Amino acid sequence: MTSDPRRLRQALVESAAEHGPGLFGLVVDGGEVVFESSVGVADLRERRPIVGGDRFRIGSLTKTYVAALVLLLRADGVLDLGDTVQRWLPGMVPQADEITVELLLRMRSGLPDYVGPVFGSPPDLRVLERYWSPETLVRMALTGPDRRVPGLGYRYSNTDYVLLGLIVEQATGQRVEAQLWQRLFAPLHLDGTTFPTVDPFVRGQHARGYLRESAEDPYRECTVLSPSEAWTAGAIVSTPIDVASFFDALLGGSLLDSEDLAAMTDCREPLDERCSRGLGIVRYEFGAGVLAYGGHGGVPGFTTLALRSTAGRCVVLYQNGLDAHDVLTSRTPFIDAALAT
Q1: How would you write the chain as a 3-class SS string?
Q2: What is the CATH number of the domain that holds 190?
Q3: Is the pTM of this model over 0.90?
């Protein structure tokens, strides 16, 4: 697989045309960085560029880390994918004896997403100024009117991954952040990666996050916020190289055994004509034989894409902003150029 820096740079500039204030692209091939660059700025006040050491909120990419953790615990016999929510969290949700760990991983619990009830309509971002316990998030989800029969169909629900975090804590007797550090962050040397639960600040060198409702609106800063609202559905803070290292280890086979990796990448839930979901991960088909696995994360302030092709090329693209009117997706010139053979 070839790498043309000029082609990748131009594709990054094209991708940044509608997304800002800054966009950072990283391409890692065989564990080696073959391209990294940024467009725009990391901070609208200081006007400095985004650099590879900047930390940022990875949003729902957190779900892939949590899914990997659950599969590691399964391999150790701590829990099983067939365990029910009733076993670990008795009485917390309706029909808990019909909702298994695997259904949570596949987002087939039938439980409503808590995001709507928490933020309201129109969304009130002041909710990010307070602490939300995971139990409160689950209770808020249950105020939604659209509960469904468990197992009948896929529906994106952050509630499922909050329940997985609570199950991890019950099954291990430890806080989920301790398990993430012991099982993922430390062994993989992800030194720039943390899982904040209360601290609203992004510690260390970081890009400031911004939010824009429409193309005509200015970006407003949205860096300091409570990570508790996302918890195991989206609270991890990391760096581009750490994200690439995680996906290289996961999809390269050095983190999970072959059986669990096969289960994770069994992507049977169609999302659109080229994407399907497995256990906390998405399969992307780009045509011309290009196949990749990864995910997308969006949180007020940041948007992230991380994909690793079956040929071993890992691409991380992140924006220090969330364009609510036009969210950054995998359908960008940079992703296409970076994964092209």
Answers
A1: CCCCHHHHHHHHHHHHHHCCCEEEEEEEECCEEEEEEEEECCCCCCCCCCCCCCEEECHHHHHHHHHHHHHHHHHCCCCCCCCEHHHHCCCCCCCHHHCEHHHHHCCCCCCCCCHHHHHCCCCCHHHHHCCCCHHHHHHHHCCCCCCCCCCCCCCCCHHHHHHHHHHHHHHHCCCHHHHHHHHHHCCCCCCCCECCCCCCCCCCCECCCEEECCCCCCCEECCCCCHHHCHHHCCCEECHHHHHHHHHHHHCCCCCCHHHHHHHCCCCEECCCCEEECCCCEEEEEECCEEEEEEEEEECEEEEEEEEECCCEEEEEEECCEECCCCCCCCCHHHHHHHCC
A2: 3.40.710.10
A3: yes
